[in-house]
Design goal:
CATH architecture: 3-Layer(aba) Sandwich
Order of helices and strands: HEEEHHEHEHEHHEHEH
Largest sheet: 8 strands, mixed
Oligomer: single chain
Distance between the termini: 30 Å
Structural class: alpha/beta
Helix content: 25-40%
Radius of gyration: 17 Å
Bound molecules: 3-(4-hydroxy-3-methoxyphenyl)-2-propenoic acid
Number of strands: 8
CATH superfamily: Alpha/Beta hydrolase fold, catalytic domain
CATH class: Alpha Beta
Number of domains: 1
Length: 278
């Protein structure tokens, strides 16, 4: 199963890539299985003061094996979906396993991964009706929390390289929409942008990429992926079509048989992580 998905992924990757960027690496079987024989990173909880929300907010942070305050790291901001919170990636996707494994094979740069809560409101738990208007709006408000509160906190308290080439943003579903909206809307802040199964919160292409020439010049990577059985694929497809028409290089990976689930999101992270910060 994994093998066929991998083979198809590579073909999709090669043929959907506009302009020359490196081809995808196949997902080795076991890419998401914990290995006891390699060094492991750490997951911690951080708390930061959000002037945007007027509250102390929590995020998870992954520091890679060999982490040292004497080194400097790039940072990936990794965002969750509508039913999730800062723990969704950890519980559902185990990014620490995927990244530890990739690092052991020297396939990624050592990086810090920050997993915030993208529902920027006082009660940011995924309880009650997760589709409530104010909860959905809080996913848009998170742009301010991220740019004005969380990123400055991370850059003050961790040994990170604070420039656009060393900042990436990616996410799943609502977090995919946020990543495209915030990443493409703030090209001075992010050079690496990825949306996995991006949700209806994704801005319309003309708003998302108002200046295709500038996006082309500034972006180091733009990644869109989605399962072909995912009802939300129209949001990735329309973005892809616009990018093709406007000559903005990007990956558009359609996963055969893929649903709206962590199989697609883990393989998205696996491939995206290997392309960034290089
Ligand atoms: C919607 C359908 C799906 C929507 C959001 C989602 C805001 C998000 C799904 C997810 O994050 O998994 O109509 O509207």
């Amino acid at each position: 199963m994994i093998k066929w998905t991998t083979v198809l992924l590579i073909f999709c990757g090669i043929f959907s890539q506009v302009d020359a960027q490196e081809n995808l690496n196949p997902a080795s079987p076991g890419f998401d299985v914990f290995r006891a024989d390699i060094p492991h990173g750490e997951i911690d909880t951080i708390s930061y003061n959000s002037t945007t929300v007027g509250a102390t907010r929590k995020a998870l942070i992954y520091t890679p094996p060999g982490y040292s305050a004497d080194k400097k790291y790039p940072v990936l901001y990794l965002l969750h979906g509508i039913g999730g919170d800062e723990k969704e990636w950890l519980n559902g996707g185990h990014p620490e396993v995927i990244l530890d494994n990739l690092l052991a094979e020297k396939k990624v740069e050592p990086m810090i991964v920050v997993m915030p809560n993208g529902r920027a409101m006082k009660d940011d738990r995924a309880t009650g009706n997760i589709f409530d208007r104010e909860k959905v709006e809080a996913f848009a408000t998170f742009e301010k929390d991220l740019l004005n509160d969380l990123i400055p906190f991370v850059e003050k308290n961790f040994p990170v390289i604070a420039n656009r080439e060393s900042r990436a943003i990616a996410g799943l579903s609502m977090g995919g929409g946020q990543s495209l909206n915030f990443g493409l809307g703030n090209l001075d802040k992010f050079a690496w942008v990825g949306g996995f199964s991006s949700a209806p919160n994704t801005k319309k292409p003309e708003e998302l990429v108002p200046d295709p020439a500038k996006a082309k010049e500034q972006l180091k990577l733009l990644w869109l992926s989605c399962g072909d059985k995912d009802g939300l694929i129209t949001f990735s497809k329309r973005t892809h079509d616009f990018l093709v028409s406007n000559n903005v290089p990007h990956y558009y990976i359609v996963e055969p048989g893929g649903g709206h689930d962590f199989n697609v999101w883990k393989s998205g992270l696996y491939n995206f992580a290997q392309l960034i910060f290089k």
